């Protein structure tokens, strides 16, 4: 697949510099790497957010147990909680 991307002159110079330094074989390789890294970073951020929400929900449920609102027998599994709360990937 071919994709044409317009970039500002300053950014193009930086891209050219990276290629000239031998860090990348060509401009396409640099752009592919940049996109791959961006997607990986976003994925990591999303996972971290889900983990935080998951932990908060577990704490909330444990507080309910401590306060006698629900018994341990009433506790659902962590997977069930995550699924119900939309926190499971």
UniProtKB/TrEMBL annotation:
Q: Does Coiled coil show up as a keyword for this record? A: yes
Q: Where is the Ribbon-helix-helix protein CopG domain?
A: 2-41
Supply the InterPro entries for this chain: CopG, ParD_sf, Ribbon_hlx_hlx
What does the record list as coiled-coil region(s)?
31-60
Keyword set, alphabetical order: Coiled coil
Q: Name one GO biological process term.
A: regulation of DNA-templated transcription
Q: Does the keyword Nuclease apply?
A: no
Going by the entry's taxonomy, the superkingdom of the source organism is recorded as Archaea
Designated name of the protein: CopG family transcriptional regulator
